[in-house]
Amino acid sequence: MIRVAVNGACGRMGSRIVAQVRQDKELELVAALEREGHPLIGKDIGASAGEGPCGIKITPSFNGKADVLIDFSEPASSVAKASFCASQGIALVIGTTGHNPEQLSSIREATRHIPCLMTPNMSLGVNLLFQMAAQVAKALGEDYDIEILEVHHRFKKDAPSGTAIKIAQEICKATNRKMEEVAIYGRHGLTNQRPSKQIAIHALRVGDTVGDHRVIFGNLGETLELVHSAHSRDTFALGAVKAAKFIVGKPPGLYDIKDVVRL
């Protein structure tokens, strides 16, 4: 039995991960973590997640034993949990996005001591989209403009999404572009003619949209689109559970969801 702690357990993703962990016969939920001052601190996480009481209280810290911690919280919290896991020998799965370079450096430091799987998106379909977008961009060449559009719910705090940024990064790798030189984020005002190597990323926040990503390639004669739509957060929760099972027992280092699904 793999012992699992969940950080950000009361969030939209965290609650679904809690539900999936509880339903998996190979996993045991041992901790549900939330920030200090959260209104549900001290409550039963099972009841909070709509799964019925389970005897696990929501707490701001964890002093017990776990094999892996799944983190869907906020950048500062995930960095703190990475440091804690490194000190305790707990494997780590991070689905949190929006980290700055310093925070990413801190997480990489933690992976010197523990295995950590970090990805902006746990979906198999999205990870296929990463590869397909890179392959299409390389095949079409610079004659085709590239625009990335992402749509999420009104409550999402970071923009653009980590998934949209990852799509652009994979395209840059495949086409020998430097992200910092070609990426722009939306447009406003007199923008002049579009440079051939530019990659534009646009973020929309609409209602309760789980997550839509669209990569548009176009020249003066045609348009090609790659589209992924997430219909339920369980898509990502199930991916996080698979990642947790995969990462336990692995050597220290930084892993990706591609290591799990063998794309």
Question: What does this entry show, briefly?
Answer:
The chain has nine helices and twelve strands. The chain has 263 residues and is α/β, with parallel strands linked by helices.
Please tell me about this protein's structure:
- With 263 residues, this protein is of the alpha/beta class.
- The protein folds into 2 domains: 2-118 and 233-261, 3-Layer(aba) Sandwich (Rossmann fold); 124-230, 2-Layer Sandwich (Dihydrodipicolinate Reductase, domain 2).
- The protein is built from 9 helices and 12 strands.
- The chain has helices spanning 12-23, 45-48, 75-88, 101-110, 124-140, 162-175, 179-182, 234-247, 257-261; strands spanning 2-7, 27-33, 58-59, 68-71, 91-94, 115-118, 145-152, 183-185, 199-205, 211-218, 223-230, 253-255.
- The protein has a 7-stranded parallel beta sheet, sandwiched between helices. Strands 8-9-7-10-11 form a 5-stranded mixed beta sheet.
- Helix 3 links the parallel strand 4 and strand 5.
Strand composition percent: 15-25%
CATH class of the largest domain: Alpha Beta
Helix content: 25-40%
Query: In CATH terms, what is the fold-level topology of the largest domain?
Result: Rossmann fold
Output the number of helix runs: 9
CATH architecture of the largest domain: 3-Layer(aba) Sandwich
Query: What's the shape?
Result: elongated
Instruction: Output the CATH homologous superfamily of the largest domain.
Output: NAD(P)-binding Rossmann-like Domain
Structural class: alpha/beta
Q: Give the strand tally.
A: 12
| Weakly predicted, low-confidence segments | none
Instruction: Specify Rg, calculated over alpha carbons.
Output: 19 Å
Can you give the mean pLDDT? 94
Strand count, sense and closure of the main sheet?
7 strands, parallel
Strand order of the largest sheet: 3-2-1-4-5-6-12
Terminus-to-terminus distance: 27 Å
Q: How many domains make up the coordinates? A: 2
* Succession of helices and strands: EHEHEEHEHEHEHHEEEEHEH
